[in-house]
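Entry 12.
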Amino acid sequence: MEDNLSSLDFTGEDWEVFYDTVDSAHFQDKDADLIYQVLEKKMKLIPFGEYLKRYIYRKAGMTEPFAEVPLRIYQQIIRESFGDNHTPPAFEVTTAKLSALSKNWLTQQTVKRKVVFLLGFGLAMSVEDVNEFLTKALREQRINAKNPFEVICWYCYKNGFSYLKYEKLMRIFEETPPNTLNLKMICSDFTIGARSEMRRIEDDTALFAFLSGLKSSDNRSSFSATARKCFDELFDRARELAACLYNREEEEQFAEEMRQYQEVLLNNERISESEVRERIARKKKQRRVYKSSDITESDLEHIISSAIPVDRHGNLTPGKASRLNDSFAGKRFRRQHMSDILCGRAEVTRFDLITLNFFIYSQMLEEYPNAKTRFLSFAETTNHLLDRCFLGELCISNPYECFVLMCILSEDPLGTYADVWELSYEP
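Predicted 3D structure (C-alpha cells):
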C-alpha cells in the first residue's frame, strides 16, 4: 500500500528532475540543451486523467497496484458517486452519457475549468480537493472569490451541500437584483477583500448579501482587480527595463556608427577640424533614446518571444509547430493577449504574471549576480504576487513554470529562455 501511494506524488518526482538538471556539471555550459531535453523527455504535462485516477485511487482506499486498476473501475466509481450525490453529467443540459464523459475525463490531457467544479459535487470533494485540482491538475487559479458561480460552489463544498442545493442557490442568485444587498462590496477593488469576506459567509443570507455585490447589471462578475493591478505594475516595470535594453543596444550600434563616421571625416582633407567637431556633435544628437512610454506590447513580445518564428505579417507562428506546445499547454507571450488585458477584454492569468516577473528578473543580473540568490528572490516575489491574486504558488509540476525556474538559475536567463524555445521549433 505504501509503495502505491508514494508513486502518486508527482511533485516530489518533479523536484528530483529539477535538481538533477540544475546541479549537473554541464548546466552552465549547455543549459538550454539540458533544459530542452528535460522538458521534452521528463517533464511532459501530466494528463488531467492521471490526476483524477490517482485521486479516486486514494479516496476509494484501493490496495492493488495503481497501474493494474482498469479504466472501467474508475468509470464505475464515478457513475456510482455521481448517482449517490445527485449530480448530472454537466452543469448545462446535455445529451452526452456520463459513461462517455467519465471516460473522457479519465483519459484527456486537460479539461475545462467547469469540469473540476462538477467533479467537486459528483465526487463529494472538499474545498481543498477542488483547489488542488485547479492548481495542480489544470495549473490554474484557486476558487475565485469574485466569480459568483465559483463562490456558490465553494459555499456548497464548504458545508457539504449537494448539487441539488447548488441548483437552488443558483436560481435564487439569478433572480437577485444586482448591487442591492452589500454596498460595501461594490466599493471593494481588491480580490483579497472579497476573499476575506467570502470566508466569513456562514449561511444563505450572508451568501446572497455577498453575491449581490459581485453582480453587475448584465449578471457578469468583474475581473480580478488585484490581478490587474499586479499586471499593470509588472507591465510598467517591464517597459522600463525594455527601454533600458533597447538603449544599450542602440548605444552599442551607434558607437560603431560614430566610429566609422568619424573615420570618414578625419580622412577627408577638405573638411576642417572645427567642422569635423561640429558634424560629430550634430551626429551624436541623432542617437535615439528610448523611454518606457515608447515601449509597446509588440516590443515586449519581440523581446520575450524573440526565438519564436513569425509569419510574413509578423505574427507568431502557430504554437503546434513547437514540440513543447503540449507541455506548455499552448502558453506563449503574445502582444494581442496583452492588449486584451489592458483593454479589459481578458483576465490576467498566472502565466502573465510569472512571465513578466521572469523578464524583470532576467534584466537584474547586476543586482543578483549570484544565480541561487536570484532564484530565491524570484520565487519569493512571484509566489507573493500569485498569492495576492488568489492564483496559488509556483507549481514545479507545471512544465512551463519549471522551465522558467531553471532559466532563472542560468547565467543568461532571457538568452536561455530564447534558446530553449528556438530548439523546440527546429525541424
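Annotation: The radius of gyration is 27 Å. Residues 1-8, 183-190 have pLDDT under 50 and may be disordered.
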